Amino acid sequence: MAAVNKIVKHNLESRTRELNESGTSLRDIADILTNESHIRISKNSVSNFLKNDIEETAKLIEKKTQLRTAVAEAEISTIEDRQKVITGLLSLAESAEHDRDRVSAYKVATEALDSLDKRIGKVSQAPNSDPKTIINITQNNLSIEDKIKRYRDAGLFNAQ
């Protein structure tokens, strides 16, 4: 079993990182830590700690990136699934023989679009604050036709 680095053992990680980030040499970091902690810290201990710290940081960043990718993929999948449902509902509404069926299908489609608005609102910024804003979700009083047009214009919905 590998010995615990003295920097970790004596809780000197933050100070070591701080000195390293300020451009202090490994030898000087070892000397400063030795003087401040009254524990003999070698240049090799500093070097080993910083090497391991960089590797662990890289691993954490990679895991975080993978998690963000998985979340983004799930969001995209959810939006695509909702688009399919909305397309089906609109198809039902257009082919309905009775007005009450047509109204019911449009009502459910409107609710699905509102739900999609909220989902997209999670990933877009408030209007006029970021040029990457996809849709202004504060205007939820739009008709179904206006919402469909808005989605088509944004390239998010391809139902005819």
What does this structure look like?
The protein has six helices and no strands. The protein has 160 residues and is an all-alpha fold. The protein has two domains: 6-59; 73-153. Helix 3 crosses helix 4 (43-95) and helix 4 (43-95) packs antiparallel against helix 5 (99-123). 14% of the residues are buried.
Topology (elements, then pairings):
Elements: H1 6-9, H2 13-21, H3 26-37, H4 43-95, H5 99-123, H6 144-153
Task: Give me some keywords for this one.
2 domains; 71% helix; mainly alpha
The computed structural class is mainly alpha
Most strands sheet: none
Radius of gyration using CA atoms only: 28 Å
Q: Which oligomeric form is depicted? A: single chain
Helix content: over 70%
Task: State the distance separating the first and last CA atoms.
Answer: 66 Å
Order of helices and strands: HHHHHH
- Care to count the β-strands? 0
* Number of helical stretches of at least 4 residues: 6
Low-confidence stretches: 123-127, 129-139
Question: Could you give a short description of this structure?
Answer:
By secondary structure, the protein is mainly alpha-helical. The chain has 2 domains: 6-59; 73-153.
